[in-house]
């Protein structure tokens, strides 16, 4: 039997085999925290996991819910194959379902915002920011990123790879990835430019002038508040074209945000 080495090759397998392989992505700590059975079914027999992984495609969208029918998953992952056959994380989200929800992902009429990328629900974003959330977060996380990275790396290693790639959607994501040992394939120059801009006498400091709730002076040395200012357009362009990679087993790396707090 040939061991699959890519998302595309896994997607060709029977549904039961795909489920068995892809559930390796779920950290056991997440199941323990929300008292979810290892079978990923609830006591009524409802399936708590949803997967989009059709044969002929090279992408996976995986959602795990703590409760059947709940609006938000506790884990959402969207991963794909790179052209060179490596695993690439397009989006990875952990939600605490018991924390307050902020509708940054939808407008008041229900139109999706793509987490503020297509359009912005500014009122919800202000509330989220004041409650300690970062851009794109609809709820607080369960603080299980180390366990999630460990599970993801075990999955990647089981496919025969020694590294994987990730696309940080926001500035704070990139900084967090740096601290867990990720390096830049594309975008380090942008990150260094941001650090210079927020460091005295950087050109971004005068723009933290209170002209919007996202551009307050205290954002200068805060990873989270910097990320809100960048999301608000302080760079004059979106935060894009940043791709990172991580060698399996590599630990804490450098940080381009020196002396910053969260």
Kindly describe this structure.
- This protein has about 260 residues and is α+β, with helices and mostly antiparallel strands.
- It has helices spanning about 5-10, 15-20, 30-35, 120-130, 145-160, 170-180, 190-200, 225-230, and strands at about 50, 60-65, 75-80, 85-95, 165, 185, 245.
- It has one domain (about 5-190, about 240-245): Gcn5-related N-acetyltransferase (GNAT) (Aminopeptidase).
- Strands 1-2-3-4-5-7-6 form a 7-stranded mixed β-sheet.
- Strand 1 and strand 2 form a beta hairpin.
- The longest helix has 14 residues, at about 145-160.
- The protein is globular and about 55 Å long.
- The mean pLDDT is about 95.
What's the gyration radius in Å? Answer: 19 Å
Largest sheet: 7 strands, mixed
Would you count the extended β strands for me?
A: 7
CATH homologous superfamily designation? Gcn5-related N-acetyltransferase (GNAT)
**Which parts are unreliable, with pLDDT below 50 for 5 consecutive residues or more?**
none
Determine the strand fraction and express it as a percent band: 5-15%
Output the CATH class name. Answer: Alpha Beta
Oligomer state of the chains in this structure: single chain
CATH architecture: 3-Layer(aba) Sandwich
Quickly count the domains.
1
Fraction of residues in helix: 25-40%
**What is the tally of helical segments?**
8
The general outline is globular
């Amino acid at each position: 039997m040939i061991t699959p080495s890519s998302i595309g090759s896994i997607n060709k397998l029977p549904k039961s085999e795909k489920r068995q392989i892809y559930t390796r992505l779920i950290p056991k700590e997440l199941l323990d925290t929300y008292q979810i059975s290892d079978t990923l079914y609830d006591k009524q027999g409802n399936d708590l996991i949803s997967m989009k992984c059709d044969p002929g495609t090279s992408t996976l969208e995986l959602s795990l819910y703590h409760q059947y029918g709940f609006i938000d998953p506790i884990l959402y992952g969207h991963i794909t194959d790179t052209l060179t056959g490596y695993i690439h994380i397009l989006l990875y989200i952990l939600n605490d379902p018991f924390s307050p929800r902020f509708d940054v992902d939808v407008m008041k009429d229900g139109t999706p915002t793509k987490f503020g990328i297509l359009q912005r629900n500014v009122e919800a974003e202000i509330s989220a920011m004041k409650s300690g959330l970062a851009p794109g977060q609809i709820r607080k996380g369960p603080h299980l990123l180390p366990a999630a990275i460990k599970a993801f790396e075990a999955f990647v290693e089981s496919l025969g790879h020694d590294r994987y790639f990730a696309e940080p959607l926001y500035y704070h994501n990139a900084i967090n990835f740096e601290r867990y040992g990720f390096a830049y394939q594309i975008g380090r120059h942008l990150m260094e430019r941001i650090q210079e801009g927020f460091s005295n006498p950087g050109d971004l400091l005068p723009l933290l002038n209170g002209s919007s709730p996202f551009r307050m002076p205290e954002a200068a040395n805060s990873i989270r508040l910097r990320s809100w200012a960048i999301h608000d357009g302080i760079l004059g362009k979106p935060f894009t074209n940043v791709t990172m990679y991580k060698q399996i087993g590599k630990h804490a790396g450098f940080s381009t945000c020196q002396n910053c707090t969260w």
